[in-house]
Specification:
Number of helices: 8
Distance between the termini: 33 Å
Helix content: over 70%
Largest sheet: none
Structural class: mainly alpha
Radius of gyration: 18 Å
Shape: globular
Oligomer: single chain
Number of strands: 0
Length: 187
């Protein structure tokens, strides 16, 4: 995580710490936010590919987690639980953005186009954009595993907890997704 992201996550954590009835910060929740904030941000960023959106989703995830904290039966599973919340929120935001782009394109009578930040900086940038496009075209069950496992850097067991599927299924899907990407990118 870069310096800017670390500062952002520190500010995020400080803003999210609720106060107890005595006016003191909720120390237990503060600790849980601190332990999981980087992971939550990485998950949101891997789905959205936008730091500002990922920050908003992270905030929303921690806010929802705090509001629903009483429904968490095992406190030691907080990290996985809030990761699932963040993943679902990011996925919902991504889908909404896609629907909005299609709606806007239909309104203007054009095809939706991928927005590119700045000019392309050579073959590496072009390759990465093509790879990103191929990942976006994958079936959702493969795309999600690639985003969480390869892009966000989560272990298969962590992805399994977030997606509520067996770790073997995660590894299998990741293998299949990588194989498909390799075939497509070699063309």
């Amino acid at each position: 995580m870069g310096e800017g992201e670390h500062r952002t996550m520190t500010v995020l954590a400080e803003r999210l710490i609720p106060m107890t009835a005595t006016g003191e910060p909720d120390a237990e929740f503060a600790l849980r936010v601190k332990e999981s904030r980087a992971l939550v941000f990485r998950i949101a960023y891997s789905v959205l590919n936008n730091a500002a959106d990922a920050e908003e989703v992270s905030q929303d995830a921690f806010l929802q987690a705090y509001r629903r904290m009483s429904s968490l039966r095992e406190a030691e599973k907080f990290r996985a639980w809030v990761s699932r919340i963040a993943f679902r929120l990011a996925l919902n935001r991504s889908r909404a953005r896609g629907r909005r782009l299609h709606r806007d394109a239909a309104w203007q009578g054009t095809q939706p186009q991928q927005i590119v930040d700045g000019e392309r900086a050579g073959a590496d940038r072009e390759y990465l954009e093509r790879l990103r496009g191929e990942i976006e075209r994958m079936p959702e069950k493969l795309r999600v595993v690639v985003l969480l496992g390869s892009v966000a850097g989560m272990e298969a067991a962590e992805v399994a907890v977030v997606l509520k599927i067996p770790a073997g299924t995660v590894r299998s899907r990741l293998h299949l997704a990588r194989k498909r990407l390799l075939e497509v990118m070699e063309r």
